[in-house]
Amino acid sequence: MRFYLPAVPDELRPGTGSETLAPRQAFAVTPELLAELASAGMEGDEEIAEYAAFLAAADACLALMNPATPVLRVVIAADAPPSCAVGVNDPDAHPAAVELTQPIAWEDVAAFHIDEPDAAPDIAAALAGDDDAEARVADRDLLWYDPSERSHHWLVTSAR
Fold first, then answer.
1. Is residue 155 scored above 60 in pLDDT?
2. What does the alpha-carbon distance between residue 160 and residue 146 come to, in Å, rounded to a whole number?
3. Which pLDDT belongs to residue 151?
4. Residue 159 DSSP symbol
5. Can you say whether the dihedral through the CA atoms of 100, 105, 111, 117 is positive or negative?
6. Which residues of 14-45 are buried (b: 16+ CB within 10 A; e: fewer)?
7. Whether 39 contacts 124, CB under 8 Å
8. Higher pLDDT, 159 or 6
9. Which phi and psi (to 5°) does residue 123 adopt?
10. Among candidate residues 76, 79, 105, the one with its CA nearest the CA of residue 1
11. Which residues does residue 113 pair with via DSSP β-bridges, in sequence order?
């Protein structure tokens, strides 16, 4: 199953002592998400469901940030057995939300995605409560990276 983990750039830094990603709230194609998409007339399109879960993870990144030191959003896409997660028992949670109950190994990461560096001012403004900046952040696409690019020094420093 593909899980989308909201993250911060420091989690990309190799050699931090752990080659796993800690359990956390993540997002995936869940029965609840599929039901919501079906009620909106979008049933049966797996690509739309995956993208909806990905976008939910990107939105959740803002909650991980310290407003005093905003960073770029990071979404880590990883493949793990469905048994690694449980549903979120909260009626207000996003329908794609799950709780990872086990760490995810970096070897199970399929890709990671990061905002372009020029997104930083909008992210800072969004964290300061600017609704227009928050909308601009939500409209931004994150850039795709192969897991092997995680160790590139330029990538880690550009993400800060």
1. no
2. 18
3. 75
4. T
5. positive
6. eeeeeeebeebbbbbbbebbbebbeeeeeeee
7. no
8. 6
9. -65, -45
10. 79
11. 75, 144
- Token pair for residue 105? 């190994």
Q: Is the pLDDT of residue 50 over 80?
A: yes
Element holding 104 (H helix, E strand) = strand 104-105
Mean pLDDT of 129-136: 96
Q: What is the pLDDT of residue 13?
A: 82
d(CA 160, CA 155): 9
What is the 3-state composition of the chain as percent helix, strand, coil, each rounded to the nearest 5? 45, 20, 35
Please list, in sequence order, all residues whose beta carbon lies within 8 angstroms of the beta carbon of residue 106, skipping any fewer than 6 positions away: 19, 20, 21, 147, 150
Q: In a 10 Å sphere around its CB, with 0-12 CB exposed, 13-18 middle and 19+ buried, how is residue 129 labelled?
A: exposed
Write down the pLDDT at residue 142: 96
The stretch 109-127 carries a mean pLDDT of 95
Per-chain mean pLDDT for the chain = 90
**Range list of H helices, the chain:** 31-39, 46-64, 120-127, 131-139, 153-158
**In the predicted model, is pLDDT for residue 158 greater than 70?**
no
Look at residue 81 in the predicted model and tell me its pLDDT.
97
Q: Identify residue 151 by its one-letter amino acid code.
A: S
